[in-house]
């Protein structure tokens, strides 16, 4: 069933919240269709806090320090960059069950320009010790995240998508604890991605494999903080080459992989594919921005044409 | 109720503990610690706040957030005096022991991490809101510096707490009028300060931060509240209060205390046991 990813997340959250009175939802004046049900059925636990993200994260921490499980919702740059210190000190240092729900990954808000692009949030929040990150790529993992974070009672930064995306992984194979899903296996070249850009790679896969003359293993690393654990290390150890693709500036999962490869002495060369470190003013839809930002399927394929030329 | 004379004596003793700790540590934020000693003693030693020394995370406790975390030593001296942790820790301030310059949640009796300004009021607002949701009648008290009120997040929370009518929240501003490099009014004017909070919808009280009976009366007023607006207590204080050469001197925001000054300060504070 085609469903907007935000609605997939919030519909599940509403179900969970109806059975768990500890759950409180804060919004920095940002909505979603499925949230209307939360507001309607649990008005005392739904607070539009206004456009004040710093206060929202602080209030979330205070609520969580008093036994609540809090969701704090807003647009990517405003619930990450603008509140880096609140996330670090009030939430992560205190290890409180605050779940930041961030919408607007990559070029989601394409026409809104660099002020609204989510290219920096992932690299930024990856620097916060004790903050688990979940990056959704399809309706299945999105729904699971809504339940998982309530059960875990740890601080989370959850990136959810806006718009309709197909199911990538089969529900029965999805293991949130593992931190990644194998979307395609069997190749010695390892392609690691995160977020909905995985769908571009799936589209480009036949051409990528043709360019490489080899099969690839495609991994959806939805929990980048788990990358250092053995299950993924085993893949990195065996890989002949590692490519990262992310709808983000550099220093995201590319840096995470680079550190793991270098510190373990793995042999695989690493090639990072990511958004150019500039301000993407092109006005158009997300597909247009991915194209001008060289992150569409065709551009990704082109990056595989010279697989071992790491100078590119 | 502990009387004012006894509390004054406690405050004097606490100031000595702070002086010794900072002297031993080499340097520290003594000015802004001295300006809040009487506030802390009137809340903690007078048992205005509910707490359990043996069980710092007791669910029935009132919440106290030292948002101006650089005055951590003042809170530490109070907590040590009450027995939250051994007094010896004060003498190991910033020297590898339990206590660092800014409060952290590992320290018994410390509710929340602080040190970066502008965090306490949003967090305290969340705590007060949770208590109201749960029908708990405990209070949340947030102590801020006046310089801290330059931070925008303070005013985001000021709007929020007033809008939600968090009557169980009490914010205190240590209005000593000085930041590191001079007067708040010369550097970036805060006045008319009370009017700003009134306009934001707070129940504003002015008090002398060094008058223990006036402080007690203020807390009694707030703790009797069962509805209405959040309380803002603007506590007119003297930075460095208690030691003449430090009083109202911005340079004593943070600094080292040499031996001669230490002896002189000890004499003023009326140390009876002598020595460090």
Molecular structure report:
The complex is a heterodimer of chains A (312) and B (276). Chain A contains 11 helices and 11 strands. Chain A is α/β, with parallel strands linked by helices. Chain A has 2 domains: 5-160, Rossmann fold, CATH 3.40.50; 177-303, Rossmann fold. Chain B has a single domain (4-268), classed as Rossmann fold. Chain B has 276 residues and is of the alpha/beta class. Chain B has helices at 4-25, 30-34, 37-44, 72-82, 120-134, 152-163, 184-187, 193-199, 212-223, 259-268, and strands spanning 27-28, 63-66, 140-145, 169-175, 178-179, 182-183, 203-208, 231-236, 255-256. The A-B interface holds A 24, 44-45, 49-50, 52, 54-68, 85-86, 89-90, 93-94 and B 104-105, 111-113, 115-116, 118-119, 121-131, 133-134, 140, 152-153, 156-157, 159-160.
Query: What characteristic shape of chain A results from the CA principal axes?
Result: globular
Which percent bin holds the helix content of chain A?
25-40%
What count of domains describes the coordinates of chain B?
Answer: 1
Q: Low-confidence segments of chain A, ≥5 residues, pLDDT <50?
A: none
As a percent range, the share of strand residues of chain B is 5-15%
SS-derived structural category of chain B: alpha/beta
Question: Quaternary arrangement of the chains shown?
Answer: heterodimer
* Overall helicity of chain B: 25-40%
Quote the beta fraction of chain A.
15-25%
List the helices and strands and how they pair.
The complex is a heterodimer of chains A (312) and B (276).
Chain A: H1 5-19, E1 23-27, H2 35-41, E2 46-48, H3 53-64, E3 69-75, H4 84-93, E4 98-103, H5 121-125, E5 132-135, H6 139-152, E6 156-160, E7 181-184, E8 189-194, H7 198-212, E9 216-220, H8 230-238, E10 241-246, H9 253-264, E11 270-273, H10 286-292, H11 297-303
Parallel strand pairs in A: 1-2, 1-3, 3-4, 4-6, 5-6, 8-9, 8-10, 10-11
Antiparallel strand pairs in A: 7-9
Chain B: H1 4-25, E1 27-28, H2 30-34, H3 37-44, E2 63-66, H4 72-82, H5 120-134, E3 140-145, H6 152-163, E4 169-175, E5 178-179, E6 182-183, H7 184-187, H8 193-199, E7 203-208, H9 212-223, E8 231-236, E9 255-256, H10 259-268
Parallel strand pairs in B: 2-3, 3-4, 4-8, 7-8
Antiparallel strand pairs in B: 1-9, 5-6
């Amino acid at each position: 069933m085609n469903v907007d990813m935000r609605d997939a997340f919030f519909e599940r959250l509403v179900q969970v919240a109806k059975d768990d009175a500890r759950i409180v939802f804060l919004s920095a004046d940002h909505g979603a269709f499925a949230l209307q049900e939360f507001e309607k059925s649990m008005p005392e636990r739904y607070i539009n806090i206004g456009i004040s993200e710093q206060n929202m994260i602080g209030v979330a921490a205070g609520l969580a320090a008093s036994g609540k499980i809090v969701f704090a919702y807003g647009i990517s740059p405003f619930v990450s960059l603008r509140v880096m210190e609140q996330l670090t000190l009030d939430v992560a240092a205190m290890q409180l069950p605050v779940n930041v729900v961030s919408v607007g990954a990559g070029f989601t808000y394409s026409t809104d320009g660099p002020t609204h692009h989510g290219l920096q949030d992932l690299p930024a929040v990856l620097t916060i010790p004790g903050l688990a990150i979940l990056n959704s790529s399809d309706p299945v993992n999105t729904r699971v995240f809504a339940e998982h974070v309530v059960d875990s009672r740890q601080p989370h930064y959850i990136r959810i998508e806006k718009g309709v995306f197909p199911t990538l992984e089969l529900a029965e194979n999805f293991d949130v604890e593992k931190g990644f899903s194998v979307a395609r296996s069997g190749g010695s070249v390892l392609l690691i991605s995160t977020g909905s850009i995985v769908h571009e790679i799936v589209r480009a896969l036949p051409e990528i494999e043709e360019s490489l003359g080899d099969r690839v293993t495609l991994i959806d690393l939805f929990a980048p903080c788990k990358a250092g654990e053995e299950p993924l290390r085993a893949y990195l150890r065996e890989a002949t080459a590692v490519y990262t693709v992310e709808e983000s500036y550099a220093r995201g999962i590319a840096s995470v992989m680079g550190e793991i490869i270098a510190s373990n002495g793995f042999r695989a060369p690493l090639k990072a594919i990511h958004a150019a470190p500039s301000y993407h003013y092109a006005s158009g839809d997300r597909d247009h921005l991915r194209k001008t930002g060289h992150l569409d399927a065709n551009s990704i394929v082109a990056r595989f044409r010279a697989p071992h030329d790491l100078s590119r | 109720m502990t009387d004012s004379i006894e509390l004054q004596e406690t405050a004097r003793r606490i100031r000595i503990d702070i002086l010794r700790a900072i002297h031993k540590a080499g340097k520290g934020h003594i000015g802004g610690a001295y300006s809040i000693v009487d506030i802390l003693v009137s809340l903690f030693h007078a048992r205005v706040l509910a707490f359990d020394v043996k069980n710092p995370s007791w669910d029935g406790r009132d919440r106290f957030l030292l948002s101006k975390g650089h005055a951590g030593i003042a809170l530490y001296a109070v907590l040590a005096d009450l027995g939250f942790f051994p007094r010896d820790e004060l003498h190991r301030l910033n020297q590898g022991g339990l206590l660092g310059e800014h409060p952290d949640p590992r320290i018994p009796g410390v509710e929340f991490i602080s040190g970066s300004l502008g965090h306490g009021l949003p967090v305290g607002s969340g705590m007060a809101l949770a208590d109201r949701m749960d029908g708990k009648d405990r209070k949340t008290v947030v102590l801020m510096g006046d310089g801290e009120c330059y931070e925008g997040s303070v005013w985001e929370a000021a709007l929020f707490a007033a809008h939600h009518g968090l009557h169980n929240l009490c914010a205190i501003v240590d209005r000593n009028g000085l930041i590191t490099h001079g007067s708040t009014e010369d550097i970036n004017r805060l006045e008319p300060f009370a009017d700003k909070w009134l306009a934001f919808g707070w129940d504003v009280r002015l008090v002398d931060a060094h008058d223990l009976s006036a402080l007690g009366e203020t807390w009694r007023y707030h703790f009797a509240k069962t509805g209405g607006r959040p309380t803002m207590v603007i506590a007119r204080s003297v930075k460095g209060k208690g030691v003449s050469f430090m009083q109202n001197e911005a340079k004593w925001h943070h600094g080292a205390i040499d031996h001669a000054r230490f002896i002189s300060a000890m004499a003023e504070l009326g140390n009876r046991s002598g020595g460090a």
